[in-house]
Amino acid sequence: MARVFKLGDGVSTDAIIPGRYNVTTDRDTLRRGCLVEARPDFGQNVQPGDVIVAGRNFGCGSSREHAPLAIKENGVAAVVAASFARIFYRNAVNIGLPVIRCDALHDFVEDGDDAEVDVARARVTVRGREFQGEAPSGVALRIIEAGSLIGMIREGGWAAVEEVSHVS
Amino acid sequence: MGTLAEEIFSRRLGRNVRAGDTVIADVDCALAHDVTGPLAIQAFQALEAPLWNADRVVFTFDHVMPANTVAAAELHQMIRAFAAEHGVRHLYAEGICHQVLVEKGFIRPGGIVVGADSHSTTYGALGCFATGLGSTDIGVVFATGKTWFRVPETLRIDVRGELPPGVSAKDVALHVVRIMGADGADYMAVEWGGEAVRAMPLDARLTLCNLSVDFGAKAGLVEPDEVTRAHAGEHFADVHPIQPSYASVLEVDASGIRPQVAVHPAIDNVHDIDDVAGTPLHEVFIGSCTNGRLDDLAVVAAVLQDRRVHDRTRTVIVPASRGVYLSALDAGYIDTFVRAGALVLNPGCGPCLGRQHGVVGAGENVLSTSNRNYPGRMGSPGARIYLASPAVAAASAVAGEIADPAEAR
Ligand code: SF4
Fold first, then answer.
1. 8 Å CB contact between B368 and B386
2. What is the pTM of this model?
3. Residue A90 with chain B: CB contacts under 8 Å
4. What is the ipTM of this complex?
5. Do A167 and A115 fall within a single domain?
6. Residues B152 and B193 reside in one and the same domain
C-alpha cells in the first residue's frame, strides 16, 4: 500500500523545490529539497512507492526539471493531479516520473490515506473506491514506452515519433 | 491559412498544419541558463551524440551571477567547460536571458525558438513562436536541432482603445490573468492584438508575452508590424494570421483598466490598486524579464527624480541587461536612482527568484515588478509578495506603502 500526500491547487515548482535548493545537479540534494518548505513532513515520512495527489495546475511556474527530479528521487510512484502545468508534465514524462490526470480523486482522498496505484492502467484505488485517471498519450506515450526521452532518442532518434496531421 | 502560431509552423514545415497536429520542427536556437544549463548538458551527454550546431546554442549566466556560493560557481564552470569543448561561442554574462537574446538578434519574426526557461514566451513579442521546455528537452535539441510540438490552439486577446495614464502593459497582462485564472490559457498560444497593443513599443510587448506563461500559455505572440521591423531590420518577416480560427477571443477595454496588483499567494489573486493601497512595504524590487527594460526604468526615474525612497523600504533596482544599464546611465536614470536612495545591482535576475540578493524574511511585504508571487519565491514562504507595474513600484517605494502612481505626480 502506498501513502497519499495530499496537496492543493496551484502547487508551483517553487514549492516543489525552492530556488534556494536547486542550484545543483546533485540528485541527493534535490531529493532533500523536495517540498522542503511547503510540506516539511514530506522528506521525513515519504517511502518509495508513495503517491502525491494534487489539485489543479500542479507544477506551475518555472521550467526547472529539478522539480520532477526531486519528486522522482524520493521514489514517488506517481503524481495524480486534477491538471498539470504544461512544462512540468512534459518534464515528468521525459524523465520517467509517472503522471496521471484525475479530476475526481482529489476531492475524495485525504492526506495519509492508503492507496493502490496501477500506473500502467492509470487507476487509483482508495478506501475501496476505484478512480480511473488519464495516462499520457501521443508522443508522451512513446516516451514512456521507451522509459525516458533520452531512451527514445537513443533507440532511434525522432523516427519513433509519428507526426500527426489533422487534414481539414 | 491560420492563426499566427499555425502560420509560423506551416512556414517552417513547408506544409499546412493546424492546431492539434503533432509535428517535429527545426528550431532557430536553443537557450539554457546557469541553473537549467547543467541538467541540459547532462541530458545531451547521455545521448553520446555530436552537438547539432555550436552557433545556435546559447548559454546565459543570469540567475546566480556573479556566483554567490561554491555550488553556483561550479555550475558556471561546468557550462564554460562544455562550451569550450564544443566550440559554443554564445556565452553571455550580461543580463537576463530573455533580454539578452532579443538584444543580440537571436529572435526573428516567423522563427521558432526554445529555451530551458518558462519565460521564453517573451520572444513572441517579435512574432517568433517561442516556448519554455525542460532541460532534457533542450539537451535533445542540442543533439538534434529539433523538438516535437503539438501545434496549439489560440486564444486571441484584443485590447481595445487607449490605456489611461499610469497604466501599462503590466496592468493589461495582470488584468487578463485576473479574468483567465492562473491556468486559463493552458497549452494554448495567446495572440495579443487590438489598438492598444499596436500602439505599444517593443518593451511593452515583451512584457505581455513574458506574462503569457503565467496564465498557462505555451506561447505569447504579437503580429509583426512596423515596430517589429524597426527592431528586426533585414530579418523582418511579414507573417500574420490569415483567416484564423481562434479557440476563443477575449476583448479587453483598455480605458477601463486601473493599476493592477497581484496579491500573495497567487498570480491570479489580482486586485485594483485601490483595494491594497496603504499596505506597508519592506522591499520594492524593480527589474526582471518582465519589467527591467529601459522603458520601465524611464517610468521609475520620472517618479524618483528629486525624491527619496521611504526609509523603511529597501528599494532594489536591477537593469535587465548591460545594454539597458548603459542606456539608463546615459539617460541619467542610474544617477537618479542612487540619489533617491535605491540600491542598483548588476544586470541579471536579481531578487526575482530569491536565490541571490534582496532575499526577504518572514513577515515582510515586498512589491515586485516581476512575474511570480508563489510563497517562498523571493525568500521566506512567510513573506508576502505583491506584483505590479514599474509605475506602481516607484510610487510605492517613495510612499513606503503600496501607492497609486497617479498620486505620486
Ligand atoms: S528574471 Fe525572474 S522570471 Fe525572469 S528569467 Fe530571471 S528568474 Fe526567471
1. yes
2. 0.97
3. 133-134, 137
4. 0.97
5. no
6. yes
